[in-house]
Structures are given as C-alpha cells and as structure tokens.
User: Fold this.
Amino acid sequence: MRLDPSYNPQVNTTDAPGMPKLPRSQLAYARTAPAFTRAMASANQTGALAPEGNTAAWSTSVRSGQTLTGIVREQMASRGVNISNNEAMRLAQTVARSNNISNADMIHPGQKLNLDGLNFSLQQAQAVNQAIAANKAAAAAAAAAPAVTPAANVNTLNTNTAMGNPALAGTAQVQLLTRSDRSGHVVLEKTIDRAIEKGFIPAQDKQAVMNKIVQLSQEHRFAPDDFARLTLMESDGMNPKASNSRCHGIIQFCDGPDRGAASAGFGANPKAILSHSVLKQLDMVGKYFDDTGLKNYGPVGLDDLYLTVLTPAARNETRPNVALNIQGQQAAYLHVNRDTRAPITRNSILAGLHQNANERLGTDVAQRPSVQAARLSAYAAQAAVSEVR
Assistant:
C-alpha cells in the first residue's frame, strides 16, 4: 500500500546504484496462500526447518482413488485444522517437492508419503485456532458473568442487567479480555504501552485498542503480535499522525485510486486521516483488509500480512528468496542484509520486521517456543546471503 520511502528515518533515499529495477505492474488485490507454507521443500532438504517440540514422524500411504490435495486436506483435518482448496493445493506442492515427486497429480496406491513438511503449517493454524477459541470463550463468559460493582449500586446493577444493558456487558468483556489478552500478546502489549508513552494513544484507550486489534486478528486470522510488528515498521508503532507526504496513519494509507486512503474512505482528502485517533484508524484498517479479501484466507503469516499493506500484488510471488516487485525504495530493514542495494524478499521482510520490533521495544520479544520463532529461524536460514561490501 505504501510504495514511497518508509516513514522509518533510517531509509536511504538515494537510488540503488548498479541494481536492476524490477518490472512495474499495477497494484492488484490478489490473495495467495499464507507464506508459512513456503520454504518447506528446500528447507526439508537441509533440515533447517526441523519442528520444535513435535519431532514425531508424520507419514501416510496412498490409498486407491486418493489425490495428493485430498490427502493433505484429510491429514490436516484429522489434526483439527480445516484448510481451503487453495491452501491444500499449495501444501500438496510442498509435499510433492519434499518427496521428490515431479508431478503432484501422479501418485499411486501404496506409495509412502513423508508429511513432515506440513508440521509448521499445522502448528501455525492450531495456534491461531486456539487463540480465536480462547477469545470467543472469554467473550461468552464475560457476557454471562455479572459485572462487579459496589454494594450500594446493586439495585441499579440488577435493573440494568435485567434490561440487557450493553454498556455493562461491554465492560465485563473488556475486563475479561484484559486478563486473557495480556498473557498471550506480548509484542502487542509492549507496542501499545510504548505508543502511550509517546503520546500516540490516550492511556484510557489502551484496552479498547487492544480489543480492537484482537477482534481484527480473529476476523482475518493473523497474529495480533504480527500486527504490532507491522505498525512498528510503518508508523513507529501506531502513531496516527505518521506521514511521508503521500501515505498517512498507523499503516500508512496512501494517496491514489484503489489505494489505502481510498479504501478507507479518504480518497478525496487522504491527509484527513491524520486527524483521526488510533481507534478510528483501526476501523479503517478493517475496511482495507475487507477490500483486500484477507478474511477469506488464512491463517495469515507475517509476510503476507505486511505485503497486504505494502504492495498487495507482491503476494503473488510465493517463493521465499525471490525478489518481490515492490516499487520505490523502502526501509533498509526490509532488504536482504539491510542493504538497500539488495532486493526485498519474503525472507528479508520477516527478518527485518522482527529485528525492527526487537530494537524499538528494547528487548527480544520473539514469541514463546514458538512456531513463529522457529518459522523465522527457518526463513533466516534459507535467506543466508553474503553481506554486500
């Protein structure tokens, strides 16, 4: 969405000397499969993506009449994860490559398939599903539980509860979400706390902002911490007044037709976005994600989430180490080895967003034993490129 130099002050705005320019194409709202299914085939050959905490071999034998896509869907469903046809086809290609099958449509009864390459996709999907289920359970419990108030207000509470007062139900939900969300979204909470310290978010809006982001993450199936990492790159962590003259706000809604500002309803006056709070801009983010079709697919990895904001058309390139067609020079963090002369790849985006978040938050905030940390290390291993001197 933002094709101009990054809001990040470290951007090198000079031309990239000696580097061929990537071909330009119009921005498109095309959605590919989540990126955590990528890099599996090559990683399986090197062992770089060995799963953490789940090393049991995963294999199956082909039965008569089965297809590779059907096997993938069946195997994932047997472990509690339902996937789309598109994702099943992507994962089938991964399984084919890891089993040295040149044609994914050519399998035969009795053939043994190694499915270890599905482990990280499975773990990521299970983590997202568990988070969604936990938050739904918390909301349901909050709606059923009476709000705690002083004894003097018991009569008023009973009356309001009997009338179905939505304000009380909302308060109870916020209180319960406060307890559940704090334990699970470390990067998001640190980012919001930092935004409050910097004056980007009023202190009284903290939980409302947290809840809104969790709600968006449930609707569009991404990790709340990944959204925090995105904003740390785009707007120094939810600065609603961040602007580089053409792109504005917490995810940098850009000028132009079919761009972020137009999607948010500010095509005629994009800079007006800067007058709105983080909470209001999160509503705009939801509209933009709807327009890009994000909620119809997932779970969404950090790289696809970021590309949805930066350049949706670039999501069509699913290979982890291939240069992405991203116009304009971007923050050094996004380039391979943080060298602005080098290309931007999915791997370099992942590494850069994590490193930027760690540096801005002043601590290592890699997620716990983590699917995300393991996935990042796998991508980093695949992205090993000699430093350009």
Summary: Residues 177 and 211 are 7 Å apart (CA to CA). The first helix runs from residue 40 to 46. The two ends are 31 Å apart (CA to CA).
